[in-house]
């Protein structure tokens, strides 16, 4: 068997993005106890020099830290056909847990191999902590853009809750900016039915962020259903939410003083710029005589971030 059988073969549009976090190999080091094979029927990965061995498929188990919960059948079927023709080209990355090999990376290959009923699969054994496993699985999925917005949010939240990482630490490790991580975690504050719409990709993360401007879970669901039904884009959704917040659209139909179209457009432009600047929901309530600006924050850390952007220091 030739060594180049174990080179990574992925379509060019799925190749890892440059600068995304620390990279998979940097997160989990090869243990000294797993030497490069020099014979005996075992092979070495030509890219890393790590020993590749073949193990029984029934000894490989899924990871409880896999952030991806939903796997598209059409993508998996394509991989099944590829493995049927070429075999499992890229070894699974695993760690040893209670006599089994727990997946770190390569769950799609494992699922496809199981579907085909293969007896053995190639693996590379590594030592890794629970946090390492979650980080590596998260980065692998982000590199392939496999996660939906909610799965990404849940993974960030787990890194924060279970492993005590701050949002800026998470951002640094996965190659995202802090606002992206903060906004993603906020999606978990949505009504559960709205979260389902995001998971099913009927709503984008942009739609979801706009709907977060509504506090009432019942109103969130009502607006989300309306957005899906009318196929509103993100800007139209933001306008709908803004109208809901400012009271221009009320169930009682109460009339409020209206600004001129030019003034409304101007206020909306300011509001959009502030939302972009502070990476949170901001509402401007304006009349000819007075008004107010509402800035939302989500926890002490988020408040500190906003105060820092405002140039406010608390001694």
| CATH hierarchy, class of the domain at 3-129 | Alpha Beta
Could you say what the CATH topology of the domain at 3-129 is called? Answer: Conserved hypothetical protein from pyrococcus furiosus pfu- 392566-001, ParB domain
Class by helix and strand content? alpha/beta
Shape: elongated
Strand order of the largest sheet: 1-2-6-4-5-3
The CATH homologous superfamily of the domain at 3-129 is termed Conserved hypothetical protein from pyrococcus furiosus pfu- 392566-001, ParB domain
Mean pLDDT: 77
Give a nutshell description of this structure.
The protein has 315 residues and is of the alpha/beta class. Helix content is 46%, strand content 12%. Helix 2 packs across helix 3 (107-116).
What is this structure's SSE topology?
Layout: H1 24-27, E1 43-44, E2 51-56, E3 60-61, H2 73-86, E4 92-97, E5 100-105, H3 107-116, E6 120-125, H4 130-144, H5 149-163, H6 167-174, H7 178-186, H8 192-199, H9 205-211, H10 217-230, H11 234-246, H12 261-278, E7 282-286, E8 291-295, H13 300-310
Parallel strand pairs: 3-5, 4-6
Antiparallel strand pairs: 1-2, 2-6, 4-5, 7-8
Helix pairs in contact: 2-3, 4-5, 5-7, 6-7, 9-11
Question: Can you put this structure into words, describing what you see?
Answer:
The structure is a single chain. By secondary structure, the chain is an alpha/beta fold. It is 46% helix and 12% strand. The chain is built from 13 helices and 8 strands. It has helices at 24-27, 73-86, 107-116, 130-144, 149-163, 167-174, 178-186, 192-199, 205-211, 217-230, 234-246, 261-278, 300-310, and strands at residues 43-44, 51-56, 60-61, 92-97, 100-105, 120-125, 282-286, 291-295. The longest helix is centred in the last third of the chain and has 18 residues, at 261-278. The model is unreliable at 1-41 and 248-255 (pLDDT under 50).
């Amino acid at each position: 068997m030739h060594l180049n059988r174990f080179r990574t073969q992925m379509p060019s549009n799925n190749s890892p993005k440059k600068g995304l976090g620390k990279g998979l190999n940097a997160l989990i080091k090869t243990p000294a106890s797993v030497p490069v094979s020099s014979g005996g029927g075992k092979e070495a990965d030509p890219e890393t020099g790590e020993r590749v061995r073949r193990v029984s498929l029934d000894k490989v188990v899924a990871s409880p830290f896999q952030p991806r919960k939903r796997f598209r059948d059409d993508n998996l079927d394509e991989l099944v056909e590829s493995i049927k023709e070429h075999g499992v080209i890229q070894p699974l990355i695993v760690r040893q847990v209670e006599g089994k090999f727990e997946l770190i990376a390569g769950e799609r290959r494992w699922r496809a191999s199981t579907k085909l009923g293969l007896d053995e699969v190639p693996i590379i054994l590594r030592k890794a902590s629970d946090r390492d496993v979650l980080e590596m699985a998260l980065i692998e999925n982000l590199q392939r853009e496999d996660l939906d917005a909610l799965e990404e949010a849940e993974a960030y939240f787990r890194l924060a809750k279970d492993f005590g990482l701050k949002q800026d630490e998470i951002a640094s490790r996965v190659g995202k900016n802090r606002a992206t991580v903060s906004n993603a975690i906020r999606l978990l504050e949505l009504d559960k039915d709205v979260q389902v719409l995001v998971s099913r990709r009927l709503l984008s993360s942009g739609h979801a962020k706009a709907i977060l401007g509504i506090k009432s879970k019942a109103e969130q669901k009502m607006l989300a259903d309306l957005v899906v039904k009318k196929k509103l884009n993100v800007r139209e959704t933001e306008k709908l939410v803004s109208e809901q917040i400012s009271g221009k659209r009320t169930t009682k139909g109460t009339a409020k003083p209206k600004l001129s179209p030019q003034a409304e457009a101007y206020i909306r432009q300011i509001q959009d710029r502030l939302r972009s600047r502070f990476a949170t929901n901001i509402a401007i309530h304006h009349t000819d005589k007075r008004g107010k600006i509402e800035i939302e924050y989500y926890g002490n850390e988020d408040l500190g971030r906003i105060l820092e952007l405002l140039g406010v220091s608390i001694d």
